[in-house]
Amino acid sequence: MKDTYRHKGLRRRMVDALRQRGIADEAVLAAMGAVPRHYFLDKAFEEHAYDDKPFPIGNQQTISQPFTVAYQTSLLDVHARDRVLEIGTGSGYQAAVLAALGAKVYTLERQEALFQQAKSLLDEMGFSGIRCLFRDGTKGLPEFAPFDKILVTAGALVVPEALKEQLAVGGVLVIPVGEEVQYMYKITRLSQTEYKEDILDAFRFVPFLEGVQRK
Ligand code: SAH
Global pTM? Predict the structure, then answer.
């Protein structure tokens, strides 16, 4: 793994392009400027690692495009030491961006092959603040709840109740919901019993599926 001047230059251009597209959260832009996205992609796509595009990561899954990562991360409003649950580890890139913001990250993946690949990469990169687990994220991670923030990076048909219950009061859940197209939902827990729901822009995600898939 090498992070060359060329990679750094391309990354700076990616961040400028995100700012142009309306991402205004400078902390998020700085985190994305710090994490080498090309480490998370197959060698075949390395040349394009800093284009604003999703790429296949194997097992019919994709690494989200940078704009989507920036959009979801901005909505979460992550602060240092926040306890963040991510569902859909995939390549591990989004988890790395959350850790670069100073969060304590728990990330769940239902496909064993992807879980193992992301875990070893994040370990190799020295991300000690990320805990990777091979789990079905529809149930959340009750033994480590409550979370300040929960981020789902796959498209759900409904919002799992378990995830709302595992939010701390004042916490935020960001989840794309819908069948063909998903609308980004930002759900804030106002009290023990009340939630506020904001429905935002449309995206396309790979499906949020129940159960785990072993190798
Ligand atoms: N955040 C990822 C994007 C991955 S794509 C990245 O930065 O690369 C979505 C991922 O969600 C896929 O890897 C898919 O296997 C996973 N996924 C889908 N349903 C899931 C579930 N119920 N629990 C955990 N992971 C799930």
Answer: 0.98
